[in-house]
Known about the structure:
Shape: elongated
Strand order of the largest sheet: 1-2-3
Largest sheet: 3 strands, antiparallel
Structural class: alpha+beta
CATH topology of the domain at 5-92: Double Stranded RNA Binding Domain
Amino acid sequence: xxxxxxxYTFHVSRSSGAGGQNVNKVNSKVTLRWHLESSQIPGPxxxxxxxxxxxxxxxxxxxxxxxxxxxxxxxNQASCVxxxxxxxxSVAKPPKSRIKTKPGRGAIEDRIKQKKRQGEKKRIRxxxxx
Length: 130
């Protein structure tokens, strides 16, 4: 699912960590902000997005994604957009509904054997004369 470029904004700042002079001089860290409620994606997809990625949404309803792995601003912007598109793609298709099945014969027999063993153990503990 493609997201229109006008729906999100970028904010740039200096990245942290090692990198020497490049890190100290260049604003290469990119923060992508995308307002989820005003986006063009369908309602059910929005609900699944909030359910799955609620920790990435701030108080005003913006999805915040940062990238500072690359040396250049453009590469970090592309990385942020790719992350956002992957997130939306992961919730775009509704999850398959589970088909209810009954436990198999072997599972039932194992459960009953376990119950009998447990009951026997407790019965032995209750015996008065050893």
